[in-house]
Fold these 2 entries.
Entry 1:
Amino acid sequence: MHCLWCHQEMIPAIEWGNFFLPDKPKFGCDWCLGQLEVLDGELCKECGRREEAEVCSDCRRWNASSEWKGVLSFNKSVFGYNDMMKEVIAKWKYRGDYALCDLFREDFVRTFNELFKDVKGAKVVPIPLSKERLYERGFNQAEALAGFLDMPSENVLSRIHGEKQSKKTRRDRLMASNPFTLTVGITDPVILIDDIYTTGITLRHAAKLLKEAGCPEVYAFTLARG
Amino acid sequence: MVHTVLNTIGSFLYPTFDWIPTSTYDRSSTETEIHAKQFSGKLLLREEIPLEENLLNQLLSTDLMTTIPSIEKYIWGHRCRRCGNKAKHLFATIPCSRCGTTHVYCRKCIEMGRVMSCSPLYYWTGPQPLRLEQSEPCSWQGELTSHQQKASNEIEKTMMTEAVAELLVWAVCGAGKTEMLFQGINEAIRRGKRVCLATPRADVVRELYPRFTTAFPNTTIEALYGGSEQKKGEGQLILATTHQLLRFAHAFDVVIIDEIDAFPYHADPSLPFASNRAAKPNASLIYLTATPRKKHRNQVQSKQLKAVFVPVRFHGHPLPVPKLHMCFSLKKSLTKFEAPQAFYQWYERRMNPKRQLLIFVPVIALAEKITLSLRDNALFSRETITSVHASDEDRKEKVQAFRDRKLSVLVTTTILERGVTFPSVDVAVLDACHDVFDEAALVQIAGRAGRSPDDPTGEVIFFHDGKTDAMVAAVDAIKQMNKRGRNL
Ligand SMILES: [Zn+2]
Ligand SMILES: [Zn+2]
Ligand SMILES: [Zn+2]
Ligand SMILES: [Zn+2]
């Protein structure tokens, strides 16, 4: 096997413990995987960013708005958005090197199972791309992540093509109308899947729609906290 | 049956380019001219073609443009037709939302846009673009030495051969190889041929561009490298890093490859793949090198590869022969990040203390730390000594400061072994027995000294604690060239 990131050949260490057991497939070398920063310790309990206070100032701002308070139960991100993560995500998502997502697989699945094993009857919903963006990229990164999980994912949302989110200010994004529409009715708890939680506005737009349709709780589970 | 299987295995091992279509048009028209200029000789992804769907479809339906499958499939693997990659771990599959199936894509060349098996490459099969007719394209007025002239004639002869022709130009560091190319390129351009000069290093492209635009003022010349301003690739004369050839196919009548022995051309199989593909089927290939690899030397010796030697520098003086200096305490000094005592003794007794000094060391850490200890030595003035290495952000500025004589000593890793010219330097190698200093590296390093006609000599000294084969071979190679030069 070669490391998916640095292409270095990986020589599996044979120890007594794994001598008779087939090895778990290894997608990245220890050095490269070590550069990814797993988010644990003191985090904002609502958006999952590194934070000493229980709830960060961003989330307090969301809570102050009657329109947005409680729309999203919480967000959990698996990794911090450090330089390594930025590089890997850019190559994966924008260059389109699909195979790279296997680097995240193990931590992504483990964290999900630890957190959501007790949520009963929940459905996994990946954040969709617009038709145009999907054609350009060739794949939807949120669907790729959702595909790692043991639960079937439901594509109940569709997205209208608009300007790139990154080109807008926070105010623009808040004021913009909801880019999502619901294609199928849904009334179960929902775990939204996306690659990056940055301001949280995209996920909240999706969550708001689902809540209005009758979902009791909407959670977000994302790869990285931007 | 057996025959076809062997053929398939053969074409997997040795790439063929018979999949590149040929043009069915022979006459250019004003309508097609603009696209002929834009696309001729290029192998492109749909995303790289700035045309509306309608117009592209029109070009396709009239055979002006042709699509080509982008990935070759074999029972035991694949080959990417853009970069030549056939390594299993550099292919992966993608559940593709464009075509709705899961299929293979190339990971190796993905920085230039993704090559997927469901999406073809596009190739211009319309008429060749018109080139400006010029009776004397080259306006360079300088004079060549007799050695340069001899090589220049051979180069021109090779370029004018109508069938495939190869020539290795084995010219010492400082032979003046750019000027030797002018005569042949002049004739090629005059006959409407398209020429490419590829070199492994972007700084060389940047340095050559003004020299060529001055020498060929009426020819369309383009400089292509990662991040270059020009990126169209439409010129009749293209100066490019070898990497840029990944976008060309059957484009050039003449391909000149500078420093054919150098990394990364030597190390990355994509680059020979791309340069062979960029050449037209009956193109002339000129290889330039001061330190050919064994493979080429053997081919020259067995007369499989034609070669011309330029054993004398353009100023006519012999190459400085390195002195080998044994010092037993070398490793001991280096582990303390200090230069050996012998180095200081040599430095004090240099023949010409006005010369600047280049010090080569094997690793980055040593470059930085030994600089600190040299600064503490009374022989050197603190402010005029610094170090430089590949990942140094100020590399360009430091090299320029040394060139402007604002620095007297530059400590460097092997990054300055090639391509850079300083007029008056002495050269010392600390730990010359280290693995990074192979024969080619040592010959190139020694070649930094004595470049200017005003100071055509220079001292080259290798400090070591045990002679290596590479050191001995480098000294032999230099002496050989000097002998060859005397006998002419
Ligand atoms: Zn790695
Ligand atoms: Zn928060
Ligand atoms: Zn490729
Ligand atoms: Zn496809």
Entry 2:
Amino acid sequence: MNLELRLSVEDSPNSAGIVIDAIRCGKLALDRSEGGVLNGPSAYFMKHPARQYTDDEAYRMTEAFINETWGKKPDEMLDYRRRQRQQAVAEG
Amino acid sequence: MHNIRIGIIGVGNCASSLVQGINYYRHKDSEDAIGLMHWEIGGYKPCDIEVVSAFDIDKRKVGKDTAEAIFAEPNCTTVFYKDVRKIGIRVRMGKIMDGFSEHMRDYDDKYTFVLADEPEPDMGEVVRVLKESGTEILLNYLPVGSEEATRFYAECALEAGVAFVNNMPVFIASDPAWAKRFEEKNIPIIGDDIKAQLGATITHRTLTDLFKKRGVKLERTYQLNTGGNTDFLNMLNRIRLLSKKESKTEAVQSVAAKRLDDGAHEPGVAPFSGGFPQFRRYCH
Ligand SMILES: NC(=O)c1ccc[n+]([C@@H]2O[C@H](COP(=O)([O-])OP(=O)(O)OC[C@H]3O[C@@H](n4cnc5c(N)ncnc54)[C@H](O)[C@@H]3O)[C@@H](O)[C@H]2O)c1
């Protein structure tokens, strides 16, 4: 098997949306007084994070970071999601 | 909830796209916003980001409003949003250090960095600006190979208590000693070396991962990048390229079923320009 792929992109706009997401994750950490390396966002948004994960894993970690479910036990996550849904319903 | 106040180190092509993007999203909504993971993250929309400080060393940028500096030469990226609001934030002179490579003098001003002859700030001055401007997150967009300069600005972020997003391949977040310092001060850091939305790295990683999942044995793989902007001109100094090469190689190696032998994966940067549109990058 031999695969050759040619990709033509414009670099700078290609990174802008990702940086906008990274900035907002950085701000979330500030709001939550979390410091140090943000592992999920670093693995998802960056080529050379402290620790590499597959992009699927990194995506899930970043989602969990955003939703504050990272590191929580499964039952706590269910509880968290339930509360979020209730809040969304209450807010219409 | 106030805006997210960012500082920019290096008002080059990427910073230009970022600032244009923030303005572009002002006129969009969640339905037609492209290029983002989510329209809203933790209640923040893309347009809730505001530039409050910026540093550069090019005489066509230093002293200008950031909204103008992003369109100054040698920036050559596509202008997809030209009506960027002037924000009254002037680009300040940065500390040059190794941000400027001597070989950059050999090219026409249109393509290369032209040093401003303003006095350079020391760390105290940069920290003062970061604090007084209310900068919360500092973005590093320095040229590849700016080892000293990146460490200088990372040190400024630590000193000012400002979060750091390291978009280029000098290893800060992935260097345990630096990571520890950010942790000790409880300052968030994201890094290193931004992975574009759909560029060579993510494509190469995804294919490598697919090979792994489908049981295909990957024997050799390469990535050739060709481009014509200042990022590529700067990388003509091969010594500066080492960290970029490591970053790109590791990004692919880390998702391979089995690490490839040295030389079995090669990211390469082919010579600058040669008739390519100035801003475009071709990857093979
Ligand atoms: N998709 C992408 O474009 C992408 C992806 C990954 C990494 N990066 C990295 O992001 C960085 C920025 O890329 P770019 O295309 O904007 O580069 P660029 O050459 O257009 O911009 C670099 C800017 O830094 C300024 N500068 C140089 N030394 C400085 C100093 N000491 N202090 C302050 N400013 C200084 C230059 O004048 C210039 O304006 C590069 O290292 C690049 O490799 C970009």
